[in-house]
Structures are given as C-alpha cells and as structure tokens.
C-alpha cells in the first residue's frame, strides 16, 4: 500500500521547489518585530494555508484551471508579480512600519501562497496526482505532500531561535537579504512563465 519511488520523487521535487532552507530568511524577514508566540502561530498558519491550497489543486487542480481558462504560465507570471511587490517592500524597509506589521497577516500572503504553494508546487502536485495509478501510488503522493509540509513547519518553527541570536541589527540584515532573494525568485518565476508562453506560441 505504499510506493517508495513515487513518494521519494514527489517529496524531492517539492523540497527543491518549496525550498525549506531558503524560506528561513524570508520567513524571518516577513515576521520580524512580532512576539515569538505570534511568529510561531504564523509558521503554523503559513503551512496550513499552503497545505490547503496544494490539497485543493491536488484534488481539483486541472478542473479549476480549465474552468477559469487560466494557463499554467499565466499562474506563474501572476505569482511572480505578487512576490515581486512583497520583495520590494522588504528591500525598501516598508515592512518595518508598525501599522503594516500588525495589520497584515503575511502567513496567508505571501508565505502560504504564492511562496510555499506557488505555481511550481501546484503544477507538480497536479501532475503527480494525474500520474498516480493505483491505491499505493495515490497514498504515496499524499504522504509526500504531508511530509513536505511537516518539514516546512519544523524549518520555520525552529528558525525563530535565529532571531533571538541575531538581535535587531541582524533582523534588518536578514530582511534585506530576504527581499533580495524573494525578488530573484519572483523574476525567475516571471521569466519561466513568459518562456512557456513563447514556446507554446
């Protein structure tokens, strides 16, 4: 009732796309200035949102995209533009404003989606579910999805220890680094989307 090859293949694919080590500075940058209890809750919320989105697309992904007449490249470009806006906020320090920090739940957007549950992860899950023949393969696909989200939660949950060590100056540095990394991810996502559009034309 379990296919290790299917599990390993999807888990590694999602690990590369969702990138738990790379998400750490971005998570720290987006949640800096909040109490530790709030940061822990946001780590949980981000993973829950990502899991919910991935699960919905795993079950109904192709039907949703077909119904909305949305192509995968369009999803990539839209996600990239949204990430780029947030990256610019991090780079320019707008995220440091108290009002914005308290009022915006970054666990939902951009952490949960499109950073964790981005177009790459969504498409990978849709394809894995479509290609899963038999009960063992389907169980393995969903086991890989659950395991990946458990790793994401552990990574973000225990990355909070870093904040206590680096103090305020370090947090500013991490925030700027996160902005730079996020902008690069966003631009790459837009390039990938545009490339697919050009290739399909």
TrEMBL record:
Organism from which the protein derives: Streptomyces camponoticapitis
> What transmembrane ranges does the database entry give?
6-30, 42-61, 67-92, 104-129, 141-163, 170-191
List UniProt keywords, sorted A-Z.
Answer: Cell membrane, Membrane, Transmembrane, Transmembrane helix
Where it mainly occurs, coarsely classed, is membrane
Q: What is this protein called?
A: UPF0056 membrane protein
> What membrane topology is annotated for this entry?
Multi-pass membrane protein
Q: Report the NCBIfam families cross-referenced here.
A: NAAT family transporter (TIGR00427)
Where is it localised? Cell membrane
User: How far does the signal peptide extend, from start to end residue?
Assistant: none
Family per record: Belongs to the UPF0056 (MarC) family.
Transmembrane as UniProt keyword = yes
């Amino acid at each position: 009732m379990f296919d290790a090859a299917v599990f390993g293949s999807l888990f590694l694919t999602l690990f590369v796309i969702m990138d738990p080590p790379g998400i750490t500075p971005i998570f720290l940058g987006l949640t800096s200035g909040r109490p530790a209890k709030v940061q822990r809750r946001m780590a949980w919320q981000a993973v829950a949102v990502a899991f919910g989105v991935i699960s919905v697309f795993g079950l109904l992904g192709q039907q949703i995209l077909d119904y909305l007449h949305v192509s995968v490249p369009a999803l990539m470009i839209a996600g990239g533009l949204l990430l780029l806006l947030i990256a610019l906020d991090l780079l320019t320090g707008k995220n440091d404003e108290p009002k914005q920090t308290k009022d915006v739940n970054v666990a939902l957007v951009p952490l949960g989606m499109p950073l964790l549950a981005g177009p790459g992860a969504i498409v990978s899950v849709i394809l894995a579910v479509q290609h899963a023949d038999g009960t063992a393969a389907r169980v393995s696909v969903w086991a890989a999805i659950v395991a990946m989200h458990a790793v994401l939660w552990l990574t973000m949950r225990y990355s909070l220890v870093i904040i206590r060590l680096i103090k305020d100056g370090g947090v500013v540095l991490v925030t700027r680094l996160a902005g730079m990394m996020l902008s690069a991810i966003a631009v790459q996502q837009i390039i990938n989307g545009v490339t697919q559009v050009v290739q399909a034309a």
